[in-house]
């Protein structure tokens, strides 16, 4: 059996660079999620049009159901995009802060490209309504959990909500130039239209308009603030500052 050729200094350098790039991508994505989720509850309480997005990550990833994570979309040739992430958006002013990771695979499962995606714009969002029992039906529990690659925190003040969102995103691969894309996310909860009964994602690459239009697998969910837990508005009497008592006369 022929002996494998030594890598040499250049080969070792290239291998170390690739390992460093993979670690950088993973750490950058994790940092984005920490920053987004850390500010989520404060922003969500300030506006009823704010929603959180959980895309095949965190509490949605059930170890007993491998199809839950990542979310997978496939094109007509059999190539796939696997995506995970999280974030939040304001449906009223179309602002969004969301990020995650992706892997582009060939029809035979070979990874062609791996990197980070970052949302740049919310194109549209239509809600199907809240679904209070959705987490219990899926065997999921509310409440804080330790943060990590498999567990993202969720507040008990947020309710599962179905809907259809369209985002403009940018894909940043480990090597090569970035590219734009349109990401469609469908959460089939609430009053779901018949044409939106399949949950998952679709992706359209901007440069060549390649459509990954088949939702293969993956759990996605939107979370909205519970109306009954929103902070009540203060009355004029509550907002009034009491007058300081006058000092006693000596």
What does the model show?
β2 (71-74) and β3 (80-90) form a beta hairpin. The protein has one domain (24-228). Helices cover 18% and strands 38% of the residues. A 6-stranded antiparallel barrel has the order 1-3-4-5-6-11. It has helices spanning 8-38, 40-44, 134-137, 236-239; strands spanning 50-55, 71-74, 80-90, 95-105, 111-130, 158-173, 179-187, 200-205, 211-212, 214-217, 220-225. It is built from 4 helices and 11 strands; from the N terminus they run ααβββββαββββββα. The protein has 250 residues and is of the alpha+beta class.
Give me some keywords for this one:
250 residues, alpha+beta, 6-stranded antiparallel barrel, 4 helices, 11 strands, 38% strand
**Biggest β-sheet strands, sense, barrel:** 6 strands, antiparallel, barrel
Which class do the helix and strand fractions yield? alpha+beta
How much helical structure, as a percent, in the residues? 10-25%
Number of strands: 11
Secondary-structure element string? HHEEEEEHEEEEEEH
Q: What is the terminal separation in angstroms?
A: 107 Å
Strand arrangement, major sheet: 1-3-4-5-6-11
Low-confidence stretches: 11-28, 34-46, 141-153, 228-242
| Share of β-strand residues | 35-45%
Average pLDDT score: 77
How large is the radius of gyration?
Answer: 23 Å
How many H/I helices? Answer: 4
Shape: globular
**Number of individual domains:** 1
């Amino acid at each position: 059996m022929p002996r494998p050729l030594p890598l040499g200094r250049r080969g070792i350098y290239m291998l170390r660079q690739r390992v460093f790039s993979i670690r950088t991508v993973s750490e950058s994505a994790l940092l984005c999620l920490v920053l987004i989720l850390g500010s989520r509850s404060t922003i969500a309480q300030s506006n009823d049009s704010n929603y959180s997005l959980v895309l095949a990550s965190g509490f949605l990833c059930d170890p007993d159901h491998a199809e839950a994570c990542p979310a997978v979309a496939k094109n007509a040739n059999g190539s796939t995009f696997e995506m995970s992430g999280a974030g939040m958006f304001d449906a009223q002013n179309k602002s969004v802060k969301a990020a995650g990771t992706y892997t582009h695979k060939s029809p035979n499962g070979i990874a062609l490209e791996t990197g980070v995606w970052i949302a740049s714009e919310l194109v549209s969002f239509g809600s199907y309504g809240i679904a209070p029992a959705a987490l219990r039906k899926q065997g999921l529990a509310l409440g804080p959990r330790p943060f990590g690659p498999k567990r993202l925190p969720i507040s008990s003040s947020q309710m599962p909500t179905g809907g259809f969102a369209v985002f403009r995103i940018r894909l940043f691969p480990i090597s090569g130039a970035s590219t734009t894309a349109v990401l469609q996310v469908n959460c089939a909860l609430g009053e779901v239209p018949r044409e939106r009964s399949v949950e998952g994602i679709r992706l359209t690459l901007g440069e060549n308009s390649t459509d990954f239009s088949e939702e293969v697998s993956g759990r996605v969910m939107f979370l909205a603030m519970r109306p009954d837990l929103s902070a009540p508005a203060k009355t004029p009497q509550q907002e009034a500052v009491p007058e300081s008592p006058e000092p006693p006369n000596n």
